[in-house]
Amino acid sequence: QLQLQESGPGLVKPSETLSLTCTVSGGSIWNSDYFWACLRQSPGQPPEWIGSIHHSDNTHYNPSLRSRVSMSVDTSKNQFSLKLTSVTAADTAVYFCATWDPSPGNKFDHWGRGTLVTVSS
Amino acid sequence: EIVLTQSPGTLSLSPGERATLSCRASQSVSSRYLAWYQQKPGQAPSLLIYAASSRATGIPDRFSGSGSGTDFTLTISRLEPEDFAVYYCQQFETSPLTFGGGTKVEIK
């Protein structure tokens, strides 16, 4: 059973860079047709898709965040990562890792438990 | 950007009752690009339905999805105590991938 585990900083200062790492177990990032996704959710709000990456380095980012977001894959560690630059209080949220399975149908079918990231000085 | 509008915002029902949740898209969404999720407090969303009407692995048959184009529906035929939660629809038709605002199903 595929499992994802987020690790994040907990607290980030305004204007700094948020770094999130997602560790995959129960399957290989390399040997998969999945896209690996990052989402976030502020209190009382629906989830927001941040971006997705394939092990081939094919990436898709939310246009509203594209100028500040980058994602990468480390197949040797079975991990993928998110960097979000120039953070503000509006980036405070629970950040999730998930798998985007494109077939059959499209779905975010595995999720990590999420990690709270607070932006504050 | 495709905006998904869910209604009602809150549904107050008793166990055993039928729940009908609506998701309306601002432009047409292919059925294969529409999913539904359940979220309980303090947990990640969990996949219920994909491709508008296909149940995810392990999802009981009291959950069903239907619809096409701009109108989609999630139906829970008989509410069990564990079904009281927030439900989101979500589209993969175009970027950015977006979620609806959610419907909270609460105990009456």
Q: Could you give a quick summary of the protein structure above?
A:
The complex is a heterodimer of chains A (121) and B (108). Chain A has 121 residues and is an all-beta fold.
List the helices and strands and how they pair.
The complex is a heterodimer of chains A (121) and B (108).
Chain A: E1 3-7, E2 11-12, E3 18-25, E4 35-41, E5 48-53, E6 59-61, E7 69-74, E8 79-84, E9 93-101, E10 107-111, E11 115-119
Parallel strand pairs in A: 2-11
Antiparallel strand pairs in A: 1-3, 3-8, 4-5, 4-9, 5-6, 7-8, 9-10, 9-11
Chain B: E1 4-7, E2 10-13, E3 19-29, E4 34-39, E5 46-50, E6 54-55, E7 63-76, E8 86-91, E9 98-99, E10 103-107
Parallel strand pairs in B: 2-10
Antiparallel strand pairs in B: 1-3, 3-7, 4-5, 4-8, 5-6, 8-9, 8-10
Characterization of this structure:
Chain A is an all-beta fold and 121 residues long. Chain A is built from no helices and 11 strands. Chain A has strands spanning 3-7, 11-12, 18-25, 35-41, 48-53, 59-61, 69-74, 79-84, 93-101, 107-111, 115-119. In chain A, strands 2, 4, 5, 6, 9, 10 and 11 form a 7-stranded mixed β-sheet that branches. In chain A, strands 1-3-8-7 form a 4-stranded antiparallel β-sheet, with no helix packed on it. Chain B has strands at residues 4-7, 10-13, 19-29, 34-39, 46-50, 54-55, 63-76, 86-91, 98-99, 103-107. In chain B, the strands form 2 sheets. In chain B, strands 2, 4, 5, 6, 8, 9 and 10 form a 7-stranded mixed β-sheet that branches. Chain B has a 3-stranded antiparallel β-sheet with strand order 1-3-7, with no helix packed on it. The radius of gyration of chain B is 13 Å and the shape is globular. The N and C termini of chain B lie far apart (35 Å). At the A-B interface, strand 10 of A face strand 5 and strand 9 of B.
